[in-house]
Design brief:
binds zinc ion, alpha+beta, 5 strands, HIT family, subunit A, 3 helices, 142 residues
C-alpha cells in the first residue's frame, strides 16, 4: 500500500483537517508555508486521469472548503495556490494523486521560476496547431 493509502487507512499519522467517505485532507509534512494542505481521494489512483470523474470533482470541492478555511483561519493567508503534479516529470513525488493547497502572502519567498524565453508568445498559427492536436485527441476519448 502506498504512503497516502496508509494515511487514509489510519495506519500512519497525519494532521487531518477534513475527511469524508471519498476524500481526506491533511497537512503536508514539508510545508511551503504554514497551513500547506494535501487533498487526496481515498481510493488509490496514480494520476488525475486515472480517477473516476466524480472523485476528481469531489477533490476540487474539498479543495474549495480548505481554501475557504485557510482564508478564514488565523494563519497568514492573503491568497492561495493550488498545485497538482500529474506524473513524475511534472514533480509528482508520491504516486497517489494529491492536490496541494497552500496559503500565500506578500514576500513569503515562494516563486515559480519560468524563463522569459518560455513566456514568448508563439503566435496564433502555433496556438491553433496545438489546439487542433488537443481537440483531435478529445474526439478520440471515450
Ligand atoms: Zn495510494
Amino acid at each position: 500500500m502506498c504512503i497516502f493509502c496508509r494515511i487514509a487507512a489510519g495506519e500512519l499519522p497525519a494532521s487531518v483537517v477534513y475527511e469524508d467517505e471519498h476524500a481526506m485532507a491533511f497537512l503536508d509534512i514539508q510545508p511551503i508555508n504554514p497551513g500547506h494542505v494535501l487533498v487526496i481521494p481515498k481510493k488509490h489512483a496514480k494520476l488525475l486521469v486515472d480517477l473516476p470523474p466524480e472523485d476528481a470533482g469531489h477533490m476540487m470541492r474539498v479543495a474549495q472548503i480548505v481554501d475557504r478555511a485557510l482564508r478564514a483561519s488565523e494563519l497568514r493567508c492573503e491568497g492561495v495556490n493550488l498545485f497538482l503534479a500529474d506524473g513524475r516529470v511534472a514533480g509528482q513525488d508520491v504516486d497517489h494523486v494529491h492536490l496541494h493547497i497552500f496559503p500565500r502572502y506578500d514576500d513569503d519567498g515562494f516563486s515559480l521560476h519560468i524563463d522569459e524565453e518560455m513566456r514568448k508568445p508563439p503566435g496564433r498559427a502555433q496556438l491553433d496547431e496545438s489546439a487542433k492536436m488537443i481537440v483531435d485527441a478529445m474526439d478520440g476519448l471515450e
